């Protein structure tokens, strides 16, 4: 019975990976199923959850959400949104499953295949409706900004695998990019475009730093030769008189005013349409339920307490996503050519994707999109789970059990040493 429950939990995790590129309904069903079955497995096996660097920041973020709601302008509208903070606890759930390299690889493969299928579906619909702006690729989620954020995360991961992976993984990642990048372009989502360029720069900088200037020059050259609507959309980023940019500036100005009036815990998490009408500057014409920037939105709705919690959360996520890559680099500096390059590629890819997500968040409220938050949490968990791959492989190859005590970095360094020694034998 215990084995059957474990297998069911694993299948639910793979179903979640398959659902993430699609709409909110299948994502929510798969997420609840995976979380419930994983909790049952932990209870039956008497296991604690997989501890991650995101745990404490997630609790701090939940506390900040609760404080913002307690002192909100509209507490009744704010409190229901606190529950969205619980999604961060999908990070340890995903990390638990991804500590097994075979399951993690299957989940990554399923995720990318499903993302490609969703992109093909979106491209066909786009072509049928007429592939010209203002028509935009909306994906299964039904909104170009949300879908652009999804493809940013998928394409960043695929790029890292294409650059640092080998064999079938590299070939598969290149095929995925051949579909994902046109889909990203067709969203006409400028923040997602910029986010992907940032993710690409991070991947190149930590792989072949001397190529970085050439890659960025190539991106600039591509922007210059893009077809008319794409080129105009790209260069509109620099035009402060562009209508979309002007309205964003008005929203940010309103957010600063909200922060001044409610500096500690903000105005609350409720929809901002009515408040925005009070705070918007003269000349603003577009209604706004949020402020089109993660940082302005958090400052306005959660105050300085929320901004501090956000910084703590960002640091925790970066620690979780980058640990496998950092440990691999450290082992390489000490032992030459350690095993575990695929784990390092996944770690770097998710770290780069998160960097792109943060930059995109300068211009969009992407942290408020549940479809993006679900995907991000699963990717962060997989990246952190990759820390365990080398340790488990090394223990099997060397026949040497590793001590249970000690910090994770010390254990991983020991694993790297065992892995290199057994490989040299």
TrEMBL record:
The keyword Protein transport does not apply. GO terms for molecular function: ligase activity. The chain crosses the membrane at residues 20-42, 54-73, 79-96, 108-128, 140-162, 169-185, 191-207, 212-230, 294-321, 342-360, 372-390. InterPro entries: O-antigen_ligase-rel_domated, WaaL-like. It holds the Pfam family Wzy_C. Residues 176-310 form the O-antigen ligase-related domain. It is found in: Membrane. Keywords: Ligase, Membrane, Transmembrane, Transmembrane helix. GO terms for cellular component: membrane. This is O-antigen ligase family protein. The keyword Acetylation does not apply. It is a multi-pass membrane protein.
